[in-house]
Amino acid sequence: MAHRGTNGSKIFITVLCIVAACSAVPINDLLDRASQRSDTLHSLSTTLTQDLNNHVPPIGWMMMPRPSLCHTSSLQTPNDKEQTLQLSESDLLSLARSLLQAWQDPLVDLSTSANSLLHPSQTSISNKIRELQEHSKNLGDGLDILSGRMGPAAQAISSLPYRGGNDIGGDRISQLTNFHFLLSCFRRDSHKIDSFLKVLRCRAAKVQPEMC
């Protein structure tokens, strides 16, 4: 029992040290890191979508659900850059965190489905999905730290229930279509997250809005 207590104390001290270290990092630097991570996330999701584009048959595109059916569509987000620039820093960070958190379970489903995806680049796609999960988790951890530095409003998160499952279809066309749809939804949201964080980074660096 004493040994377990000692391990618990060490973990607690380690967490305190990490928090203290992050608290010493200027917000500008934290936003730079978050923006770089979100850019990587969006670039990777775009590459994955392109990998799938040429393998979805015409009937698959006809079956593809509309973007409005993405599980995050209920979240009210800016429609363009002008609207984005009108939002406060806290609102921008809250939106980014809400979108990112909403993808925790769907990314698990994508990873599970990728293992049996009927696609010539299945192994590569599976590896990239795992990279998405890793980058998403690291970005989420960073945004949690940022929200703690920016106050209660930035810590607010909107709940966006995901009612999907890891069964994306038994035949090749259904698999590719459903997988592509879910990945396309993530790519759209990763672009929003990246845009919000870039605006935050520009404001922190006091860069003119038109340069963001």
From TrEMBL:
<dbReference type="GO" id="GO:0031667">
    <property type="term" value="P:response to nutrient levels"/>
</dbReference>
<dbReference type="GO" id="GO:0008284">
    <property type="term" value="P:positive regulation of cell population proliferation"/>
</dbReference>
<keyword id="KW-0964">Secreted</keyword>
<keyword id="KW-0372">Hormone</keyword>
<dbReference type="InterPro" id="IPR018116">
    <property type="entry name" value="Somatotropin_CS"/>
</dbReference>
<comment type="similarity">
    <text>Belongs to the somatotropin/prolactin family.</text>
</comment>
<dbReference type="InterPro" id="IPR001400">
    <property type="entry name" value="Somatotropin/Prolactin"/>
</dbReference>
<dbReference type="GO" id="GO:0005615">
    <property type="term" value="C:extracellular space"/>
</dbReference>
<dbReference type="GO" id="GO:0046427">
    <property type="term" value="P:positive regulation of receptor signaling pathway via JAK-STAT"/>
</dbReference>
<dbReference type="Pfam" id="PF00103">
    <property type="entry name" value="Hormone_1"/>
</dbReference>
<protein>
    <submittedName>
        <fullName>Prolactin</fullName>
    </submittedName>
</protein>
<dbReference type="InterPro" id="IPR009079">
    <property type="entry name" value="4_helix_cytokine-like_core"/>
</dbReference>
<dbReference type="GO" id="GO:0005179">
    <property type="term" value="F:hormone activity"/>
</dbReference>
<keyword id="KW-0732">Signal</keyword>
<feature type="signal peptide">
    <location>
        <begin position="1"/>
        <end position="24"/>
    </location>
</feature>
<keyword id="KW-1015">Disulfide bond</keyword>
